[in-house]
Each structure stands twice: as structure tokens, then as C-alpha cells.
Amino acid sequence: MARVLALVLPVQRRIRLAQGLWLLSWVLALAGGLTVLCSGHLLVQICHLGSFLAPTCPFHALPKVALAAGAVALGTGLAGAGASRASLDAAQYPSWRGVLGPLLVASAAGGGGLLLVSLVLALALPASLDSGLEEGLGAALAHYKDTEVPGHCHAKRLLDELQLQNQCCGRHGYKDWFGVQWVSSRYLDPNDPDVVDRILSNVDGLYLTDGVPFSCCNPHSPRPCLQSRLSDPQAHPLLDAEPLSLNLWAHGCHGVLLGRLQGLASTLGSVLAATCLLHVLVLLGLRYLQTALEGLGGVIEGEGETQGYLFSGGLRDTLKAAWVHAVGGRRPAPEETPPQEPPENGSPEE
Hints:
This protein is an all-alpha fold. Helices cover about 55% and strands about 0% of the residues. It is built from 8 helices and 2 strands. The chain has a two-stranded antiparallel ribbon. The radius of gyration is 34 Å and the shape is elongated.
């Protein structure tokens, strides 16, 4: 069968191919390391903000798959640099000759598959952040008051830290706090008529106020922050009912977190695209170098021209040959075949 995408490689081209492949492999190793750093940073951010993402949000899978893909790309780059350098030395290449075929198959199937999957996830999963943050932040606001409920006792501290560190208030704005009970029931006086009236006037039996927690206040403001009676125009006649005038954070946490996580995912997607392209180029170069050297018995400076190709025939035959070579299958050469004894002439003795 005809060889697929065969190229004639004289000695100078083979040497330039090995040298360029060595440099390209190191670039792939750097790209793989950068992918590991970007995916690790995104994974840390998701772990830190996990309380504000819905448990069913599939965005958690992106940094984990990208981390594995980056590690495989890093290993492929290091292996490619070692193999291309060894190919320039006839004494070192025999040790790589037996593992280069299985390495190419594993890197193409495993590494290439992981890179493609992580790239698809980086393009598709950021869209799920909108609904995931919407649900997660809504649950966090609802459990803000549950400081003594097992499983939610840290919700208040985490949400206060989120609003102060990210300079945001509520889910989409400070008015989101008007629709949830954020004051713990332990601080409510059951004998206070105002408390009783507020609870009875709500169908869910919640104590709702037109105020916000202290973490919505800007601590850098030169004047006190207004936290209560924010919807009463008579309570603060000298101020406009705007967050900046009230010394509250102007943005909701949903938009702030959505922009940050989508930005990290976009950066990771760009790094993954570059890493995937470099991974393909390194594997193609290694395959051409391997097939060219096999035609010369593993000596890059061998006499004459040789051909480098992707597949000797079909993909199935190539994978089968790589597997047989990996497990050490070796057919005896014609001169190694033991001679057969000729049959005895004559009839057997009676």
C-alpha cells in the first residue's frame, strides 16, 4: 500500500528537522507548564468560590480536565526534546527507538484527546456560569441568617468576605437584600410589635427590612454608611437613593464573579488552543523523524535519501505495527531461521 503524506528527507533536512523539533518540543513543554498554571489558578478560584456556585454547575470540570491535559502536554514536550536530541547521536538513539512508536500513539490518543476535550469545555462551559452563580448566590443570601444551622453556619462570614473583597453588594444590587431575611432570628424580639407585624405581613413568615449588611458599605468613604430605611425617601432627604450616595457598593456580586471567571476561562482557552497546535506539530515532526530514521537503521547521517511519512499504509496497520513493536514482537531474520532437515530417502526398515 502507498505511504500517506510521504516526504523525501535527505541528510541536511533530517538534521534540520531534528534541531527544529528539539526547539519546538521545549516550546510545547513551556506551553504545557503555562496550561498547568492557568488551570491550577482557575481551580483555586473555583474552590474559593465554590459556596457561591450551584453544585450542579458543570464548570467545575474545566480546570480539572485542563490540568491533566497540560501535564500530558508538558510530558510530551520533554519526551520530544529528549528524542529529537538523541536522534542526532547514533549512540543514544537506540534507547529511544523502541519506545518512540508507543509514545507517539499514547501522546496522540491520550494527550490529543485531553487537549481537544478541554478546549471544547473552555468554549462551552463558561455559558453555564450565569445560571450557576444565579442559583448559588441566591442560596447564599437565603442562608445568611442561619449562623446556628449546621451546614450553613459559615454562610454569613463567607458572604461578608465576598462582598468586602470584591466590592459588591447582593446578587445584582443592594436591593436584593430587601427580599430575604438576613437578620438572624436570635436578634429579633418576639415581643416587639414592629417585629411581629413584619413577620405576619410576609407569607413566608420572614422578617424583611429595607436594609443591608455592613459588608455592603464602602469602608473608604469619609462619612458613615447608610444601611437601614433605604427605601424611605423621608429618612434621608439630603441624599439620593443611589449606591454611591449611600456609600454602598454599586455592583452586584453576580456580575463581578461572572466577569472574573469567564475572563480566566477565556485566557485558559487561548493557552489550550496554542498548546493543542504545538502538540500536533511536535507529534507530526516526531513521526516524520522516526520513519525517516527507521529507513536508515536509526542513523540520522546515513548515506542517501529516505522517506518520512505518517502512515505506511492504513491507520489500523500502523497501530498494529506499533503495538507489536511495543510488546517486543520480533520475527527472525531469514539468516536466523534454523535450517530444516531434509527427509530421509528410502523406505523404512521392515
